[in-house]
Design a protein that fits this description.
Strand order of the largest sheet: 4-7-5-1-2-3-6
Order of helices and strands: HEEEEEEE
CATH superfamily: Nucleic acid-binding proteins
Shape: globular
Oligomer: single chain
Structural class: alpha/beta
Largest sheet: 7 strands, mixed
Number of domains: 1
Radius of gyration: 16 Å
Strand content: 35-45%
CATH topology: OB fold (Dihydrolipoamide Acetyltransferase, E2P)
Number of helices: 1
Length: 91
């Protein structure tokens, strides 16, 4: 019985991950930032805004205006969506 429950749970997790969509990233310059959000502008002048509340920031050394960062996210971009990870772009 435990094997069946674990198999069903694993299948549920896999299907939930596939619903989130593929992982993407975007690089740009910080044009706005608050406690739980960041907005960046890419080199081709596109604007992206993300929630940073639950983001992995271990590879980010501060979040300042004009700083170049990379933001990773899952699925199709939507304004204000959750960022999975924020990191500095090496100079």
């Amino acid at each position: 019985m435990k094997k069946i429950i674990l198999t069903v749970a694993a299948a549920g997790l896999l299907s939930a991950c596939s619903l989130m969509g593929p992982s993407h990233s975007v690089k740009g310059e910080v044009v706005d930032a608050s406690m739980n959000t960041v907005t960046i502008e890419t080199a081709d002048s596109k604007i992206y805004s993300f929630s940073t509340m639950d983001s992995d920031k271990t590879e980010l050394n501060g979040l300042l205006l004009d700083k170049k960062i990379e933001v990773q996210f899952s699925g199709n971009y939507q304004d204000g969506m959750a960022a999975k990870k924020l990191s500095d772009i090496a100079k």
